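Hi F.,

I've been meaning to write this up properly since the lab meeting, where we talked about keeping a consistent format for the predictions we share between groups. The idea is simple: the sequence comes first, exactly as it goes in, then the C-alpha cells exactly as they come out, then a line or two of notes. No screenshots and no reformatting. I'm using this chain as the first example so we have something concrete to point to.
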Amino acid sequence: MLNLFKKLSLRPDNFPKHIAVIMDGNGRWAQKRQLPRSLGHAKGLDSVQKIIQYAHEFKIQCLTLYAFSTENSGRPKKEISDLTILFDKTITEESEKIFANNIKITILGDISFFPDNLQKKIQDLLTKTKKNNGLSLNIALNYGGRSEIVRSVNKALSKKKLPKITEKDIERNLDTKDLPGVDLLIRTGGEKRLSNFLIWQLAYSELYFEKCLWPDFNKNNFINALLFYQSRNRRFGKLNN
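Output, unedited:
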C-alpha cells in the first residue's frame, strides 16, 4: 500500500531520462550473514534484474550501472576471479532475455583487463543489441572517471591537432558520448562519495544516497529516489524564470 501511495505521488512528466547507480554493499551484505563475498555479489544480481524492471516500468531511457571500477582491480585475485566468472555466467544466461526485451547494451571502461573469452562475449553482446532501441543499459566495467577523461583527451588530440581542447572535444570522445546527461545518481550502502564514477557526467546530476545495501534494494527505495529527484529544483547554475 505504501508503494502504491508513493507511486501515485510521482509526476510522470518529470522522470529522469538517465539514472546512474553505484551498487555498493554486496560484500558487507555477505559479511553480515557470515557468507563469502562472492555470494553477496551473486545476490546483488537480483537487484540488478529488479532495477532493470523498474526502469522499464517507469519508462527510464538510460540506466548506467557501476559494476567494476579500475580501483577494484586491486582487490584479492580470488574476488576478481569470482566476479569475472559471474560476469561471464550472467551474459550467457541473460543475453537472450536482453535481446528479447529490446535492451541496448553499452560498455563504459576498458575491458582489455578481462580474459579474452569474456571480452569476446561482451563484444558479441554489444553487436547483437546494437540496433535495439528500448532501454539503454550501460555497464561500467574496469571503469574510472579520471581514466575516461584522459582517454577522451588523447582521442581528441589524435583526431585534431589543436592548441587547446574544448569541453565539446572531451564530451564527444567520452564513453558516454551517445548518451544523454545523467539526471540522477543513486548510491546504496550508506557511503556519500562518487568513487571516481562518471565525474564529468555528474557535474549537474542530483545525488541520492540510500542506506540500504545493494542486495536489499527494492521498489520502495527506487520510488524514494524518484520522489527525491522530483523534489529538486534543477537550475543548472541559472535563476528560476
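Notes:
Residues 77-100 form the longest helix (24 residues).
Helices lie at 2-9, 26-32, 37-57, 77-100, 116-129, 145-159, 167-171, 219-231.

If this format works for you, I'll send the rest the same way.

G.
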